[in-house]
Amino acid sequence: MNRPGEGWRPLRIGGVTVDPPLVLAPMSGVTNLPFRLLCKEQGAGMVCNEFISGYGLFYDNERTREYLVFAAEERPVSSQIFGADPAKLAVAARQVEAAGADILDLNCGCSVPKIVKSGSGASLLQQPEKLFELVRVMVASVSIPVTVKIRLGWDQRNRNAVEVAQGIEAAGAQALAVHGRTATQAYRGEADWEAIAAVKAAVSIPVIGNGDVRGPEDVLRMFATTGCDAVMVGRATQGNPWIFSRTHAWVRTGGLPPEPDAEVRLTTALRHGELMLQYKPPDRAAMEMRKHLAWYAHGLPGAAAFRTAVNQAATWEEMVGLVVSYRKRLLAGPVGSVT
Ligand SMILES: Cc1cc2nc3c(=O)[nH]c(=O)nc-3n(C[C@H](O)[C@H](O)[C@H](O)COP(=O)(O)O)c2cc1C
After folding, report:
1. Per-residue model confidence as pLDDT tens digits over 191-224
2. Residues with CB under 6 A from ligand 1
3. CA 274, chain centre distance (Å)
4. Could you say which of 39, 108, 110, 228 is catalytic?
């Protein structure tokens, strides 16, 4: 299973089924509701919200609460919180459950200085007992499954992912996602998939492998190398949600569909825009679509000029018009005419 033509082995996390076992990684500023819906349409088996401050939820911050909006069509959806105060995280956890998330995830992987300095994110890997306490409190506070997303450790000298994973399991978490880098590595170097395999071998809860999956080939290599129960994809989904549909088709049918052409890419970009506009006012939708459009156009002829024009568009309508005319010009060719 989880190989070309052999079909999927769905992942079960408590009562939640993740089928196919392909997960959109949480990405702050990227995996908001419209993008999650798009990835779901493209075949992701589970999508993750961007991380939310447990303190913001506890103090009822209005901007923080805006992140807690879920749609039936995206389910199952996992929602991640960060923080280090057990009593506040217990309150935040209940809010995530009440908002309709299927899974509650604790962030123990973020290495951004602001988060680490507050004792949250990856800094919890340096205080495993504290981390386990947070997991126990969260598990006791909600009835949905609690999961944790970790890195391999704080730094190369302190790669404690195996011990941390065992403690997380003992604390009652029902699955674990492992990004195969240390916190001090941030995104440098290569993700160590062997280390993910070692975590998988050391626990009996499901393990979701993450790090450096760039295409369908990598997804299947991650399954084979690590024995993980699901693969989580982050950066490779940006401007490329077909990574899910192409992998899905490959495993179901044995044939890997080709990379999408310019027409598919820009038509999907327009679909993404439609979803964005359903949930955001036009000016905010336009601002947020800028980076996505740059990602969709990446590598296409005339992408730089397109990106510049998009960044200067004054209105939502103007931006959509630019995508439509760019698509038309690309389809009409010749390639050199798009400058
Ligand atoms: C823009 C961006 C935002 C991210 N935000 C989060 C986050 O909110 N929570 C989290 O656990 N990881 C976050 N990550 C890390 C990803 O979930 C993932 O672990 C990492 O990118 C490695 O996977 P990849 O090689 O498939 O991108 C973020 C990554 C990126 C690039």
Report:
1. 999 999 999 999 999 999 999 999 999 999 999 9
2. 25-30, 50-51, 80, 107, 109-110, 149, 179, 210-213, 233-236
3. 21
4. 110
pLDDT tens readout for residues 39-62: 999 999 999 999 999 999 999 999
Residue closest via CA to ligand 1's atom 6 equals 27
48 catalytic residue (yes or no): no
Ligand 1 atom 22 nearest Cα? 211
For residue 224, what are the contacts with CB-CB under 8 A and spacing of at least 6? 3
205 Cα–ligand 1 center, Å: 22
Backbone dihedral angles phi then psi of residue 77, each to the nearest 5 degrees: -125, 135
The number of beta carbons lying within 10 Å of the beta carbon of residue 158 is 14
* pTM for the full predicted model: 0.97
Domains of the chain, with CATH numbers? 11-253 (3.20.20.70), 262-337 (1.10.1200)
Query: DSSP states of 195-232 as a string?
Result: HHHHHHHH-SS-EEEES---SHHHHHHHHHHH--SEEE
SS3 state at 301: coil
